[in-house]
Amino acid sequence: MKSMNRLIYLIIFFFFSTEMYAQLKDLVQYVNTLQGTDSHFGLSYGNTYPTTGMPYGMHTWSAQTGPNGEGWKYQYAVDSIRGFCQSHQCSPWMSDYAVYSFMPVVGELVVNQDKRAAKFSHDNEITQPHYYKVTLNNGVTTEMAPTTRGVHLRFSYPSAGDAYLVIDGYIDQSEIRIEPAKRQIFGWVNNQRFVNDSKSFRNYFVVQFDKPFEDYGVWENQKDEMFPKKQDGAGKGYGAYLKFKKGSKVQAKAASSYISAEQALVTLNKELGADKTLEVTKARGWKIWNELLNRLIVEGCTDEQLRTFYSCLFRANLFSRKFYERKVNGEPYYYSPYNGKIYDGYMYTDNGFWDTFRSQFPLTNILHPTMQGRYMNALLAAQQQCGWLPSWSAPGETGGMLGNHSISLLTDAWSKGIRSFDPEQALEAYAHEAMNKDPWGGANGRGFWKEYFELGYVPYPESMGASAQTMEYAYDDFCGYQLAKMIGNKHYQEVFARQMYNYKNVFDPAMGFMRGKGSDGKWQEPFDPLEWGGPFCEGNAWHYTWSVFHDVQGLIDLFGSDEKFTTKIDSVFTLPSTIKPGTYGGVIHEMTEMELANMGQYAHGNQPIQHMPYLYNYAGQPWKTQYWVRQIVERLYNSTERGYPGDEDQGGMSSWYILSSLGIYAVCPGTDEYVIGSPLFKKVTITLENGNKFIIEAPENSKENVYIQSATINGRVLDKNYIHYSDIIDGGVLKFEMGSQPNKSRCTSKYAAPFSLSKR
């Protein structure tokens, strides 16, 4: 009887699971992982590479066209591949770490990375999130299907010519051990730039092959010296080579660990052990990605819009990386890149918060609140391990860029009900960050923090990027204040209450711009708002004047009126795209990207001004937000290898596109508000982690109908230019009536404006 009941249960379960699975659309087909790959040092269309990996995977994989150690590891315009590498790179400017690579070679054994490179055509390349395949011009086919911490590879050799596989130890110390009887290779590499205890850092890997080795040896890539029949070697750039039977199809399963070789083997068995063929791994990867992509179903759009949306959604779900591993019993633990010790729990890395606090984290808070809760604890764990909150981790602290926006992430999570961490600990960590400076880069602690507190601004030219620092610090201080206010901590409220208005101290009302100011209180002379650099970072005064996320009304007041404020924003778009390199001394890629965008001084290719089109909502002209957001979404993004108007930056630019195409954007992370823009699609259905559905409808939407005529939320009139996080998470329907002409009477009052500290 029990057996019969079990059979009935299984039949019912199979029926419902099959039915549910059948309802999922194949959305993976729309993802182009080559989006943004036609980039180089002087011009970025994304600075991406064809990532093959799982969502937030510890390791991902990529074809490699560039030399070992070069940040541009894959460039669309390059016609040869020199390897297939494990990758963690979040920016070409940071380069990669913990890399090793495979390269199949046919005919004569060649190990040198330049000489072994083989020509290929994009016509013979399949690039998908869960699967990569390329047939080289020499007839060798390489396939990769990833897991979270490993990969399943297959190398198919032509029948003519000897079949070799070269494993490259990359640019630093490494060790390799060949075990022919077991058809296994063990090894480790420690190439990295930003690990605080570099001597203890090792990426251990194990590779299991399904075919015997006909020959083998080790080699080193400094002099390309080979050691036939040798089973082990250690030193700079040590790797291995293997020989297989001619015409072989060789499968290899690989996994890596930062903890130990033993853990790498545990991971291999957990993630790949049961997969007898690459097709099994590939199918599971497709299912994982397809289920994630199906959480946002868009309707009423062109095929190209589908491809752009889901390609961006793919990239928005790659960073930050899971830096934790699973014990035999499944419990998480990790090697700390901050102090080299092993801890239980969760850790995440590979993210620059200057880039991602603005859009990637506000999107992820919607899609993955459980993971975000774990992440917030990981931030505080990192602070305990190295004494500082991360600002840009790759995988340890780099101190990259300026401002430390960990506090933005923590406050934003708390404001949205993600409360898995100790807020008092967060405030203490931030206070230490705000009143100290460590030697790790510009954003680790605060440069000129004493001057910032005493003068109310960072002086220029004493500090390059001083006015940008002042504005970033003021926003972060708001986040500290906001978190303290939410939990009733009056001490830290008082500490940060004054500083959060410091942005006002670098605004020159006579000029109508943020501007450099010396320690003597005198304005920078000469002053040209078109000049890049100086008191700003990767931008000019036209870009940075708007970087007051937390107090847009206060910024309006500095201009004197809504009209003067909106006229100034209008000017951003109507000015010529003139470039003045300023202190940079020459044209950098961000300048070229602004010029190519052809939107005046609006430089969407970099972060400081990306929120600016939404600011019309604060000054009584929301229809201009609607117009310009739609212009940016449709003109500056596409699904091709030239798909981005600048650095994609760890999902930051992709997340801007996703949120903006939904019709919402988080102007001020640290509050629970999403500001209204202009939805791109007729309908979007978001399936949330809690099972609720949030539906955005705009049935009359079209290329011409960009303007909101009216809106309702769950049937109630939406008379504000924003919605709350709870509106989304609780589920419901946000409905827009769209038209081709602006409704200049809707939501024009201060009542309708989003959050500002100075809002009356």
Give a concise summary.
With 760 residues, the protein is α+β, with helices and mostly antiparallel strands.
Q: Can you give a write-up of this model?
A:
By secondary structure, this protein is of the alpha+beta class. It has a domain at 31-293: Beta-galactosidase, Chain A, domain 5 (Distorted Sandwich). It is built from 19 helices and 36 strands. The strands form nine sheets. A nine-stranded antiparallel beta sheet has the order 6-7-8-9-18-13-12-11-16. A seven-stranded antiparallel beta sheet has the order 1-3-4-10-17-14-15, with no helix packed on it. A six-stranded mixed beta sheet has the order 19-31-32-36-33-34. Strand 27 (507-508) and strand 28 (513-514) form a beta hairpin.
- Any idea what the shape is? globular
Describe the strand arrangement of the main beta sheet, using strand numbers.
6-7-8-9-18-13-12-11-16
Average of pLDDT:
95
Give me the count of strands.
Answer: 36
CATH architecture title of the domain at 31-293: Distorted Sandwich
CATH topology of the domain at 31-293: Beta-galactosidase, Chain A, domain 5
Largest sheet: 9 strands, antiparallel
Beta content comes to 15-25%
**Any low-confidence stretches, pLDDT <50, length ≥5?**
1-21
Q: What's the helical proportion of residues?
A: 25-40%
Distance from first to last alpha carbon: 71 Å
The Rg value, from CA coordinates, equals: 27 Å
